[in-house]
Amino acid sequence: MKIYKHILLVFMLAFSTVGCEDFLGGDLNRDPNNPTFVPVSAQLPAFQIALADNYGGSFSRFNSMLVQQVEGVERQWSAFNQYTGLTPNRFDDAWTNLYENTLNEIKIAKAITQADGLGHYTGILDVQEAFNLMMATDVWDDMPYSDALQGIDATNPTYDTQSAIYAAIYTLLDEGISLLGGAPGPLVPGAEDVFYGGDIAKWTKAAHGIKARGFMKDNNYAGAMSEAMQSFESAADNMAYQYPDANAAGGWYRFNRDRTGDIEFHPTMRALMTGLNDSDRLAVMDQTFITDHTYLVADFLSELITYREMQFIIAEADFRNGASQTGYDAYLAGISASFTRLGLGEDAYNAYIAQQAVAPGVGNLTLEQIMTQKYIAMFLQPENYSDWRRTGIPALTPVSGTAIPVRWHYGSEEYLFNSNSPSEAEIDIFNARVGWNR
């Protein structure tokens, strides 16, 4: 994990109290009767940026490739695109970053905040833990959780079912919302929170948004709509990290710089958008993937969950429960927010929705239209992979063979060193659907 310049100093100051033992869950050189800890304010930006890196890095690249928003065209990415290269070692970085750089660090931080009565910090940590768990179980299904992150006390953690992990996610979110609505404790989150700058109201909205995302996979459409309505009120509420500059750049900029020519815009998405006369958005997205790309810039705003996603959740949930003006308005708001995110003005948006195929009126809106527009609006967002598996929209043809993978392999080290892991041969990435997709 690259340590960015605006948090480097605080880690240099904290270095004497932290070591490699921390990711194992303990420090053999520390007096257990006189513990020392890195302040949570120093820990928070590191694992928040680790989450942004993982979600906007491996999760974005692989998921966007599988749903044919981008395609691998050179070197190993050509093999990934053909699915033959999707071997366990390709997912090692995502697995390691999840457990070592985020979940384990959250656990360490939470022990401090709970002991010190830091209610708002603990609430923030609960929400982040829930987000990490959901993004992971959605691609890996069953995974170590309740028995994990115990260092040498559990070197072969058992696997929790996805249903158990989702239950834990909802518990974390409910606890987080409750804590965020309560007393902050003696220390208040501030600028070290790189997502929200300590804005508790926005963290609460994010928690409701994550619940809405989960409820859609549970087919709990009424619940999803309720949670989404309590979530983001505008794009200003988005859970996102603004990368600083080319020295600490966004994941796609770094990839395009270091792996130029490996990934490009996908013909499937190009054809879909061309068929809808979506020329303005297409011009922003469909550029050669190099550092001159005008959207995938160095100081990229890496979004984890957004207002436009919430609007499409409201639109879908409303459609499934009986279409109304509320859902139709949300559908249009989601499209509008997409144009704004791409730097396009109201004139371009108005011209686009003037088409009957895009804005047919409240009584004529279809699920295909909702999910197609969500797919476009959430360009490079990992959640597209879950939406496609849930709905089959858009219709995709496998690049190779007869099926598109419906899950990821576990990392190679998990297969090798965790005796409770399933064997590699047991995981058929083309047919072993995750729990909510069976």
Textual characterization of the structure:
This protein is mainly alpha-helical and 438 residues long. The protein has a single domain, classed as Serine Threonine Protein Phosphatase 5, Tetratricopeptide repeat (Alpha Horseshoe), CATH 1.25.40.390. The protein contains 17 helices and 6 strands. Strands 1-5 form a two-stranded antiparallel sheet. The chain starts with a helix and ends in a 21-residue tail after the last helix.
Ordered list of secondary-structure elements with their pairings:
Blueprint: H1 5-14, H2 40-66, E1 70-72, H3 75-81, H4 92-115, H5 119-140, E2 143-144, E3 159-160, H6 162-180, H7 200-217, H8 221-229, E4 239-242, H9 251-258, E5 263-265, H10 267-275, H11 279-285, E6 301-305, H12 307-320, H13 325-341, H14 346-353, H15 367-377, H16 383-391, H17 412-417
Antiparallel strand pairs: 1-5, 2-3, 4-6
List keywords for this structure.
438 residues; 6 strands; globular; 51% helix; Serine Threonine Protein Phosphatase 5, Tetratricopeptide repeat
